[in-house]
Amino acid sequence: MIQTETILRALADGTRLRIINLLLVENELCVCELTEALEMVQPKVSRHLAILREAGLVLDRREGLWIHYRIHPDLPVWGNQLLEAVHKGCQGKPPYAGDLKRLSRKAIKAATSCG
Q: Distances in Å between the alpha carbon of 92 and those of 32, 34, 72, 81, 82?
């Protein structure tokens, strides 16, 4: 069972909020796509993804060398409502808007370099 405190602690970080925002828009992203959009190194992004996974907010799947992440489909209703509210609050604001812009610009390049 997902604990409220665990989810709130996981969301209490700017990088993790940025990751959640991207996943809510794109449904599923590879670690390499997230590193490009966030302009961060892979170990830092992976560490934040691990925290989100341990909190029960995201699921991962391996495809060859690449790991793809998505919002956990079994979140409770209140968890999805919370994420949607956070997403609405982030829309159009820095750094979230810049992340989405970089992701869309890099989409073709990332598709050829990721799995």
A: 23, 18, 24, 19, 18
Give residue-wise pLDDT tens across range 40-51. Answer: 999 999 999 999
* CA nearest to 71, candidates 82, 56, 86: 56
Longest dimension (CA), the chain: 39
0.85 surpassed by pTM: yes
- Torsion angle of C-alpha atoms 81, 94, 92, 37, degrees rounded to 10: -80
Q: Is residue 113 in some structural domain?
A: no
Gap between the Cα atoms of 78 and 65, Å rounded: 34
Q: How many domains does the chain have?
A: 1
In a domain, 75, yes or no: yes
